[in-house]
Amino acid sequence: MTGAPASTSGPTGYTGTVAHVFDVSNNMPWFLNPVNTFGGSTGATPSWVAGNGQVLIQKVVLAGATGTVTFSAIPQVFNHLRLVCMGELNQASADNFGVRIGVGGGAILTTGYDWQYTTSANITASGGQGLSSIIWPAARISGNVNASPGCCDIQFPCYSLGTFNKSYIAYGGAVPQVTGESNIVSGSCRSTTSPITSIAITSYTTPGTIAYLSGSAFYLYGVW
Amino acid sequence: MTTKNNPAGSSFTFVAADERGNSVTASSGGGLLLTGATGGFLYVPGMTGAPASTSGPTGYTGTVAHVFDVSNNMPWYLNPVNTFGGSTGATPSWVAGNGQVLIQRIILAGATGAVTFSGIPQVFNNLKLLCICKSVAGADFSVRFNGDSGANYDSQLVNVSGSTVSGQIVSADTQAYIGNIQGTSSVNYPGTISFEIPAYTSTTFFKTIIGNGGSNTSASGSSRVAWCTWRNTTNITSISCQSPTGNLATGSLFYLYGIW
Fold first, then answer.
1. What is the model's pTM?
2. Measuring CA to CA, how many Å separate A100 from each of A69, A107, B91?
3. What is the mean pLDDT of chain B?
4. Which of A9, A175, A197, A221 has the highest number of chain B CBs within 10 A, making it the mutation to test binding with B?
5. Which residue among A16, A85, A174 sits closest to B227, beta carbon to beta carbon?
6. pLDDT tens for each residue of A106-132
């Protein structure tokens, strides 16, 4: 089926069975539960329930140094997005994983990013913020020293709704042996309430100019 | 419609297809199967490992092949028109039917020095562990990989104790520190630890951990957010969880998940 099943009235006549179909547009198996007891909007009877709670939308493992990794044409069927990143930069000094979003199939936004973070650098903990910035920071990423990569986990809740400014939460860091830095950060983009259709991962300080090394890996998931 | 009664004489009916285009494998005619049922199930092909070829299942336009990987507890579907991008977007391509697979659950029947998950399947992209545990003494919660007890672990930590926040770095240690757990004297107050290991099968960089966790009693609490590195590029095949100052307590629970 091209898309999620919309009708629950069709598959009838076989008491005791559960209809099953695969949505080729969203890589999602669906099951029609005739006696769904879950509450709220997921609890209609009968109702089609997702057969997979977290679908891998795209995996990017860099075969060569790359300045920006972009996930585009993101499916709009999921409730949330989750992005797991691991890698190093091709410069000696550390930076942050930088995140930008695009909406409505348009260009990646470069303004309006607000964020608040807690960070620890070696033994010092502190906080900070950015207002109407050109990019979101996600977490510290190492330079190309000691083969010690940075990693982070970023979530974009309710990315396909159009109610509030788009938001994110992230945590991650890097520990290249004798020094380290880590971040817990959340924020929103005041530029848009539209559904997120693309995400770009780039370097934070000077976006697009510092490449991620070959072998860096990025996993985008749709969360049901 | 083709119908065949169960030879055993029960009420099950087996149907190949009906005039509405439904393919029905079993219908009890009287309601849902009971959880103790021993018959009436849908049988699909099993396979020892993930399907490797996309050239075999052809000839049925509009259908999606389905197989179950018995080695990795993973249902797979062959999407003939996969529109997802990058390495997941080949057409046709087998896509995972479960994004988070429980690899193993361990519940301690007795106090134990270390809990080890070994022989970890190498088919997933990332690993996740969720631990609800106590130690005999109460202290840090730490992990090691592949049995390595050498000074090869670095941890960058945000520690919160009560209302005090601090940073900490632990370099070249014999374990990676992720959270804090209570001792058995704090009855019914466990520590809760969650952490992920991205790209655990990759051999390009050192291995990393992102994790957090903590514990509290009725009077105090502490928590930790951790980023750790294991100075080794080897793929991870085993994970040991422990508390450096004492055994993990009876009843502690550990869940290892494979993330697709």
1. 0.89
2. 11, 10, 29
3. 86
4. A175
5. A174
6. 999 999 999 998 888 999 989 999 999
Helix, strand, or coil here: B180? Answer: strand
* Distance of alpha carbon B133 from alpha carbon B250, whole angstroms: 9
Size of interface A-B (CB pairs under 8 A): 212
Query: Is B171 exposed, middle or buried (CB count within 10 Å of its CB: 0-12, 13-18, 19+)?
Result: middle
pLDDT band at B16 (very low <50, low <70, confident <90, very high): low
Residues of A in contact with B29 (CB under 8 A): 15-16
CA dist A68 and A66 (Å) reads: 6
Here the ipTM equals: 0.86
> Between residues B186 and A90, which one has the greater pLDDT?
A90
With a cut of 70, list the residues of chain A below it in pLDDT.
8-13, 39-44
Burial group, residue B118, by CB count within 10 angstroms (0-12, 13-18, 19+): exposed
CA distance A156 to chain B (A): 17
d(CA A147, CA B50): 30
Look up tokens 């891998």; give the residue.
Answer: A56
The predicted-structure confidence for B85-110, as pLDDT tens digits, reads as follows: 655 566 788 899 999 999 999 999 99
Residue type (1 letter), A122: N
Contact A60 B87 (CB under 8 A): yes
Tokens 């080897």 identify what position?
B234
Q: How far is the CA of A48 from the CAs of A5, A133, B78, B118, B141, in angstroms?
A: 7, 41, 21, 37, 41
DSSP string of A73-133, one letter each residue: S--S-SSEEEEEEEEBBSSSS-EEEEEEEEETT-PBP-S-EEEEEEEEETTEEEEEEEEEE
Pairing of the two strands B65-69 and B46-47: parallel
Query: Which residues of chain A lie closer than 8 angstroms to B64, CB-CB?
Result: 22, 24
DSSP state, residue B184: T
- Report how far residue B153's alpha carbon sits from residue B93's, in angstroms, rounded to the nearest whole number: 38
What whole-number distance in Å separates Cα of residue A81 and Cα of residue B219?
Answer: 37
What is the rounded CA–CA span in Å between residue A102 and residue A106? Answer: 6
Question: Rounded to whole angstroms, how far apart are CA atoms A108 and B10?
Answer: 61
Query: Whose structure tokens read 């004489």?
Result: B9
DSSP state of A180: -
